[in-house]
From TrEMBL:
<dbReference type="InterPro" id="IPR027417">
    <property type="entry name" value="P-loop_NTPase"/>
</dbReference>
<keyword id="KW-0456">Lyase</keyword>
<dbReference type="InterPro" id="IPR012700">
    <property type="entry name" value="PhnK"/>
</dbReference>
<dbReference type="GO" id="GO:0016829">
    <property type="term" value="F:lyase activity"/>
</dbReference>
<dbReference type="GO" id="GO:0019700">
    <property type="term" value="P:organic phosphonate catabolic process"/>
</dbReference>
<dbReference type="InterPro" id="IPR003439">
    <property type="entry name" value="ABC_transporter-like_ATP-bd"/>
</dbReference>
<dbReference type="GO" id="GO:0005524">
    <property type="term" value="F:ATP binding"/>
</dbReference>
<dbReference type="GO" id="GO:0016887">
    <property type="term" value="F:ATP hydrolysis activity"/>
</dbReference>
<dbReference type="Pfam" id="PF00005">
    <property type="entry name" value="ABC_tran"/>
</dbReference>
<feature type="domain" description="ABC transporter">
    <location>
        <begin position="6"/>
        <end position="246"/>
    </location>
</feature>
<keyword id="KW-0547">Nucleotide-binding</keyword>
<dbReference type="InterPro" id="IPR017871">
    <property type="entry name" value="ABC_transporter-like_CS"/>
</dbReference>
<protein>
    <submittedName>
        <fullName>Phosphonate C-P lyase system protein PhnK</fullName>
    </submittedName>
</protein>
<keyword id="KW-0067">ATP-binding</keyword>
<dbReference type="InterPro" id="IPR003593">
    <property type="entry name" value="AAA+_ATPase"/>
</dbReference>
């Protein structure tokens, strides 16, 4: 029997009188993908940043691998953030260093975990560019010379090169063309499966969670209104808000 990799209880974050999220609780099991869906303003990003320790909740607990995330010293949280955790931002520029080459973007994450041999780092960077379908001859180009989809794939390589255990993703396919989204989703699904990643993915796109998530949590106005197995929630939504979300997609 394994233990949850992430346990969340009663998480609340307020912005003055406004609720960011409240009363959120779930367990994430190793190798599981949890999707968090809800319309804009429902509290998804607030929750994700609380889970990753980027914002401090006003109440509740977040336990990673048996450790109280909110009590971690900042140096330890940062160490986890560059080794065992990864955070894929919606906008690739928030997760990349735009002023250095693609190879350096991937390689410097390895260096941050202790790798020091230039040849090994470059070989690993080349390998990872290949895994995210970026041609090896683009290794010395800066991300500014890449398309939006390529930048997002590079951000994924930078995040996954260190072999993290827990990955947070905030709208990873947002703002991309539909065909680019489909390719990225396919790639993500393969990587998640091959690496056995535990993932919390936030999106407003039900097609993304249908493809990637084992379990689904539906948020509205900062609260979880429904959760369950993805197919169950999408095929037989119980809450009126989830029914609305599902039917609005079907009508498109
Ligand atoms: N920095 C902030 N200051 C004040 N209020 C905020 C801040 N960030 C979020 N909020 C509020 O908290 C609530 C939840 O916002 P949040 O961004 O988490 O939702 P979301 O579901 O991620 O939306 P989106 O999909 O548009 O990013 C909203 O009412 C929002 O206005």
């Amino acid at each position: 029997m394994s233990a949850p990799i992430l346990s969340v209880r009663g998480v609340e974050r307020r912005y003055g009188a406004r609720i960011g999220c409240t009363g959120v609780g779930f367990d994430l099991w190793p190798g599981e993908v949890l999707g968090i869906v809800g319309e804009s303003g429902s509290g998804k990003s607030t929750l994700l940043s609380c889970l990753a320790g980027l914002q401090r909740p006003d109440a509740g607990s977040v336990t990673y691998d048996g450790r109280d995330v909110l009590a971690l010293p900042e140096t330890e949280r940062r160490r986890l953030a560059r080794t065992e955790w990864a955070y894929v931002h919606q906008h690739a520029r928030d997760g990349l260093r735009m002023g250095v080459s693609a190879g350096a973007n991937v390689g410097e994450r390895l260096m941050a975990t202790g790798a020091g041999h230039y040849g090994d780092i470059r070989a690993a960077a080349t390998d990872w560019l290949g895994r995210v379908e970026i041609a090896a001859d683009r290794i010395d180009d800066r991300p500014t010379a890449f398309s939006g989809g390529m930048q997002q794939r590079l951000q994924i390589a930078r995040n996954l090169v260190t072999g993290p255990r827990l990955v947070f993703m905030d709208e990873p396919t947002g703002g991309l063309d539909v065909s680019v989204q489909a390719r990225l989703l396919d790639l993500l699904r393969g990587l998640v499966r091959d690496m056995g990643l535990s993932v919390v993915i936030v999106t407003h796109d039900l097609a993304v969670v249908r493809l990637l998530a084992d379990r689904l949590m539906v948020m509205k106005s900062g609260r979880v209104v429904e959760q369950g197995l993805t197919d169950q929630v999408l095929d037989d939504p119980q809450h009126a808000y989830t029914q609305l979300l599902v039917s609005s997609v079907l009508q498109v």
